[in-house]
Amino acid sequence: MQSDPMTLTLFAPLFGAILAFLFPRAARALGLVAVLVTGGAVVWLARAVLAEGAVTLALGGWAPPLGISLRADGLSVAMLAMTAAVGLLVSLGALDALRDARQTRYFWPLWLLLLTGMNGVYLSTDIFNLYVMIEVIALAAVGLTVLSGTRAALRAGLEYMYASILGALLFLMGVGFVYLQLGRLDFAGLITAEPSGALSAALALMVVGLALKTALFPLHFWLPAAHANATAPASALLSGLVVKAALYIFLRLTTYMPLPDEVLVTLIGTLGAGAVIWGGIQALRAERLKLLVAWSTVVQIGLIFIAFARAGQVGLTESWKAAALLILAHGVAKAAMFLAAGRIKDEVGHDTIRELDKSAIRPTLAQFTFALAAISLIGLPPSLGFIGKWSLMEGAMAAGYWHWVGVTMIGTLLSVAYFSRVLAGFLRFDRVRAPLGEHQGWALADVAPLTLAVSAIGLGLLAAPILSFIELGYPFGAMP
Amino acid sequence: MIDLSTALNTAVRSDVPLLPLFILLTSLLAAPVLFALPERAARLRTGLNLGVAAMKVALVAWLGIKVSQGVIYDVSFAMLPGLEFKLQADPLAILFISLSAILWLITTVYSVGYLERGPHRARFFGFFSLCVAATVGIAMAGNLFTFLIFYELLTLATYPLVIHRGSAEALRAGRIYLIYTLAGGLVLLLGTLGLWVLAGNTDFTPGGVLDAVVAENRAAAQLLFVVLVGALGVKAALVPLHAWLPIAMVAPAPVSALLHAVAVVKAGAFGIMRVVYEVFGIDTAQALGLTAPLAALAAVTILYGSLRAITQDDIKKRLAYSTVSQVSYITLGVALASPVAAVGALAHLIHQGLMKITMFMAAGNLAEGMGVKRVSQMDGIGRAMPGTMLAFSAAALAMIGLPPLAGFVSKWYLAQGGLDAGAAWVVALLLGSSLLNAVYFLPMLYRAWFRDGSETCATPARPRIGWWLAAPPITTALMVLVVGGFANAPFSPLEWTRFVVAIEYLQE
C-alpha cells in the first residue's frame, strides 16, 4: 500500500470497519481512531491541494484508462473534509446516543464502511468505480437505517433498499452503455467523447438512478420514513452526508457529459421546485419532529437542484459554487439538527410536535442547537446556508431567471413556517402542568450538535476562503 | 458647532482601528454568557448586564469624540468575492449607537426591576443583549449587505422577547410579528441582491452608488427604490405595513419600550435614511421622482396613526399607534429632500426615542404598580404615582410639541424644512398632527391629574414600585427636557445632527 493521503482516506475507515466488526468490545475506540486518522489524512491531502492544486494518483502505477486513478481537487477535498468533520462530531454524539449493545456493535462497522464508500466517491475518476462505491454506501446506509430495530425502521429500510438497488441498477446500465460506446470509463474519456444519442441515453439512465438515490422529487418517496425512523446519529449521517454522495456524482457527471439541451436542465430545476414546495407542505403537516426534519432534507435537495438548473445552457462553470455551498451548508446544519432532535426526543421522551410544549422537561441546549441549525437551513444571515442561497439567487437574478428567484423565496417562507411550528413550542410554557426546573438537559451529549450548529452559522463568515478553496484545481474548468 | 471642515479634511486612521468591532462585541459576547448563567444567579446577571451596558456607553462616547476629531474607522473583511462585511463609524452611525447605548443602559436598569423574580430571566437578558448587538450592527453597517445581516438578527433576537410571556395571545402576536418582519427581511434580501447585481456595490456612500445605473436603466432604479423602501417600511411601520406594531405591544413593558424607541421601528427608519441618502443619494432619489410619493406616504401614516390612536382605550395600544405616527416624521424629513428637514428628521430619531421610551416605561409602571392598563382607569393616578406621571406628562407634552421640549425642536425643523422644500402643506400637516397628538394625550393627563381616583382599579401586580422601576422614566424625561432646552449646546443631538446633514448634503 502506498503511503499517500488519498489511499489513507480509503483504507483507514475500511480497516477500521473490519476491525470494529471483529472486535465489538473495542468498536467505539476503533471507530473514533479510524475517523480521526481519516480526518488527519484529509488535512494532509488539503495541504497538498493547497500547495499544488489538483493531485492525482494512479493506483498500482497503472494510468487510466487501463488502471484506476484517484484525484483530489478543491471540491473533493471540501467534501472529504465536510464528511470527516461531520462524521467525527456525529461519532462523538453517537457515544452517548447509542447505549444499546447491539446498536453499538453494528453502528461502528457500518458507519466506517459508509465513510469508505463516500471517500471513494469523492476521489474516483471513473464511473465504474463510482458504481462500486455507491453500492458500498447503499449497503452501509440501509444497515444504518434499520439499526434502531423498530418495525417502522425495518419497513422504511426495506423501501430504501429497493430504491437504492433500483437506482444503482439504472446507474450500472448507464455505465454499460458508456462502455459499449467508448470502450473506456474514465472521466478524461468522457470529456473527449463526441456527443451522441447513445451517450445521452446513458447519461439519462445514470441521472435517473442518481435522482432516486439522492431523493429528488418525485423519487423521494423512500426518504422521509427512512431518515425519520433511524436512530439519531444514523439519521444525521444519512441526511447530512449520504444523499450528498449521489448529488456530488451528479454535479461531476453533468460537467463531463453536459445535458444535451436546456429543456432537460429546466426539467430538473422544475423537479427541484416541486421538491421545495411539496416537501415544504409535507413538513408543515408532519406530526413528528424527526419526520419534519426529514422532509426538510427533501426541500434542501430540491434547492440544490435549482442551483444546478440555474446554470442553464451555459454549463456549471459558475453555478456549481452555489450548489457546492448549499451541499456543505446542508451537511453541517442537518447533522446538527438531527442530533438535536434526537436529544430532544431522548430527554422529553417523545417527539410529537404538538405535545412538546406540554412537557415540563426542556432540553434547553438541544433546543437552542435546533434553532441555530434552523437559521442555517432557512438561509438567514450570516449562516453558510444564507451564503449558498445568496449565491444561488444572485446567479439566477444576473441571468434573468426570475422564476428560480421566486421559487427560492417561496421555499424560504415555507421553511420559516414549518420550523417556527417547532421553535414557538420551545418558548411556550402556558400548557405545562408540572413545575419547571431550570436549565434541564445540559449534557455532554449536547456538545457535538452544538458545535455543528455553531459551525453552520459561523462558516458563513468564512465563505470567501471556502470558495477560493473549492476552486483549487479548477474542478469545473479543466481536464480531470 | 462641530468644525466640519477640519473633521473632513484631517481624516486620520485611528490607533484603535477595531473600536467599532469592540462595541459590537460587548453585547454580542455578553449574550452567550447571559444565556448560560443559571436562573438564580440574579446578582451576577444584573452586575454583568449593567457592567457591559456601562462599558458600551463609555466606548461609544470615546468613539464619538474620536470621530468628531476626524478619525475614520473602517473594519471589513470579504465574505464573498467583492462582497464585504463592513463596519464603519460615520457621524450618522454615531448618532444612532449613542441613542441605543444610552437607552440600553436605562432599559436594562428598568428590566432588572421589572422582571424581578419573573421566569426565564436568563433567556430574556440573553436575547435582550443580542437585540442591542443587532441595533449596533445596523447603526455601523458600512454597506447594505452588512445591514441586512443585522436586520435579520434583530428580527430573530426580538421574537423571543415579544413572546416572552409565553401566553397564547403573546404567541399569536409573535407569529404576526414574525410573518411581517421576516417577509420584510426577505424582500430586503431581494433588494440587496438587486442592488448588488445592478450596481456591483452595496456600500453606503454619501451621494449614492447608483448614478451609472440610473443613467442606464431608470425604471430598474425606481423599482429597486420601491423594493428597498417597502422592505424597510415594514419595520418602520409605514401604512399599510404597520399592522404588526400595535399587536406586538403584548410584549413586556421594557421590550415594548426598546422596540418602539430604538430597536425595531428605528432600524426601519434608519434603514430608509441610509437607502435614500447613501445608496441612492438624495439628489438621485429626487431626480427619479421618488421622494414626493415617499413624503406623501409618510404624511398619510402620520395622520392615520394619530387618528387610530385616539380611539384606543388600551394605554399601550394608544402609544403604539402614536409610534406609527411619530416614526414617520423621520421618513417625512428624509423624503422632503431639504437639509433643514433632514436636521429635523435626524433630531427626531433621537427625540422620539427618548419620549417614547419614557412613556412606555411609565405605562409599565402604571400597570405594575396600580394595575392600570386602560386610559379609562387613569383617573387620579397622578396623585398615586406622581413621579411616574410627571415623567409621562413631560414626554406627552413634548410629543405634542410644546416648546422648548424635545418634540418641539424636531417639529420646528421639519416645518422649516417643508417651507424650504417648497412644500407648505407640511406646516399644515404638522399642525394637524400636533392637534391630534393633543387630542389623544391631553385627556390622559387630564384624567391623571384633575379627576378623582375611582375604585375600579384592577389588582396591582406588585405592592410598590421600587427605584429600579421609578428612576428610569424620570431620567429619560429629564433628558427630554435637556435635549430640547439645550438644543444648541455642543454635542447635543441637534448639533450632531447638523454635522451629519452637512456630510450628506455637501457631498457634491
TrEMBL record, chain A:
The keyword Transport does not apply. It is found in: Cell membrane; Membrane. GO terms for molecular function: NADH dehydrogenase (ubiquinone) activity. One of its GO terms (cellular component) is plasma membrane. Keywords: Cell membrane, Membrane, Transmembrane, Transmembrane helix. It is a multi-pass membrane protein. It comes from the Bacteria. The chain crosses the membrane at residues 6-23, 30-63, 75-95, 107-124, 130-148, 160-182, 202-223, 230-251, 263-284, 291-311, 323-344, 365-384, 404-427, 447-470. Belongs to the CPA3 antiporters (TC 2.A.63) subunit D family. NDH-1 shuttles electrons from NADH, via FMN and iron-sulfur (Fe-S) centers, to quinones in the respiratory chain. The immediate electron acceptor for the enzyme in this species is believed to be ubiquinone. Couples the redox reaction to proton translocation (for every two electrons transferred, four hydrogen ions are translocated across the cytoplasmic membrane), and thus conserves the redox energy in a proton gradient. PANTHER family: NA(+)_H(+) ANTIPORTER SUBUNIT D1 (PTHR42703:SF1), NADH DEHYDROGENASE (PTHR42703). This is Oxidoreductase. It comes from Rhabdonatronobacter sediminivivens.
Automatic annotation (TrEMBL), chain B:
Belongs to the CPA3 antiporters (TC 2.A.63) subunit D family. Residues 141-435 form the NADH:quinone oxidoreductase/Mrp antiporter transmembrane domain. Keywords: Cell membrane, Membrane, Transmembrane, Transmembrane helix. InterPro entries: CPA3_Na-H_Antiporter_D, ND/Mrp_TM, Proton_antipo_N. One of its GO terms (cellular component) is plasma membrane. This is Monovalent cation/H+ antiporter subunit D family protein. It comes from the Bacteria. The chain crosses the membrane at residues 18-38, 50-72, 92-112, 124-141, 176-199, 219-245, 257-276, 288-307, 327-347, 384-402, 422-446, 467-487. NDH-1 shuttles electrons from NADH, via FMN and iron-sulfur (Fe-S) centers, to quinones in the respiratory chain. The immediate electron acceptor for the enzyme in this species is believed to be ubiquinone. Couples the redox reaction to proton translocation (for every two electrons transferred, four hydrogen ions are translocated across the cytoplasmic membrane), and thus conserves the redox energy in a proton gradient. It comes from Rhabdonatronobacter sediminivivens. It is a multi-pass membrane protein. It is found in: Cell membrane; Membrane. Residues 83-125 form the NADH-Ubiquinone oxidoreductase (complex I) chain 5 N-terminal domain.
